[in-house]
Design goal:
7 helices, Rossmann fold, about 30% helix
């Protein structure tokens, strides 16, 4: 698609479990415009997480291609893909992956150290942590934070470098409705105000409704919504 910010073409990925081959992705093609918020839904085992690992350059496809903001990931070396991830992508996972010995502020700022981003921009830091309700919790370590607070720290860490793409894998999977609402509204706000392109995996129809559109997956393929009756547009 001309002008697409993310374009996946005929993506294939097969895992080998002993002597068994499991086709996780079976020739998926789709495109995402710059600044879109796309929700990806489907049952467990449908290939959603595999798709995200490919889009984020965390693993290589067996076939097909991913072009992200002009970068053909298949043509990048491992080192180049690592640099691309640091520069362009913010990851949010269901597991928070916070460093237990660091307080919330240091966990967030660690993303800047890793990326080599010297732009401190305290106003951006303050705005994100304020919107996520973290201002009074910044000096607390993860063990002193609730699960919802830890996920909000993880989201702040993903957004602190102003990535062009945010990949969120079940970001509300372990959260109650109040914290889910905070995380989803922040993703939507970063999408609208910072122009970030957001792709979010979710099992939750209400969460999926935050997106501009929904991609339905089943058995490693994209399917029509009517073929996935448990999901509805909101």
């Amino acid at each position: 698609m001309a002008g697409a910010f993310i374009e996946a073409r005929e993506l294939r990925k097969t895992y080998h479990v002993g002597k068994i081959e499991v086709e996780a992705l079976r020739g998926i093609s789709f495109s995402v415009e710059k600044g879109e918020f796309v929700s990806v839904v489907g049952p467990s085992g449908s290939g959603k997480s595999t798709l995200f690992y490919l889009l984020g350059g965390l693993t290589r496809a067996d076939g097909g291609s991913v072009v992200l903001d002009g970068d053909d990931l298949a043509k990048l070396s491992d080192a180049e893909r690592t640099r691309m991830r640091k520069r362009k992508i913010g990851f949010v996972f269901q597991k928070f992956n916070l460093l237990p010995t660091l307080d919330a502020e240091s966990n967030i700022l660690m993303a800047k150290e890793i990326s080599g981003n010297g732009d401190r921009d305290p106003s951006h830091f303050n705005r994100i942590t304020d919107l996520l309700g973290l201002t009074k919790r910044l000096k607390h370590r993860p063990s002193e934070l609730s699960g919802g607070e830890q996920q909000r720290v993880a989201l702040a860490r993903a957004l602190i470098n102003k990535p062009t793409v945010v990949l969120a894998d079940e970001p509300t999977g372990n959260l109650d409705s109040k914290n889910s609402d905070i995380v989803l509204k922040m993703l939507r706000l970063s999408n609208k105000e910072l122009g970030q392109t957001v792709l979010m995996i979710t099992h939750n129809p209400e969460a999926a409704g935050y997106g501009d559109r929904i991609i339905h997956m089943r058995d490693g393929q994209i399917v029509n919504p009517e073929d996935d009756p448990q999901w509805v547009h909101h």
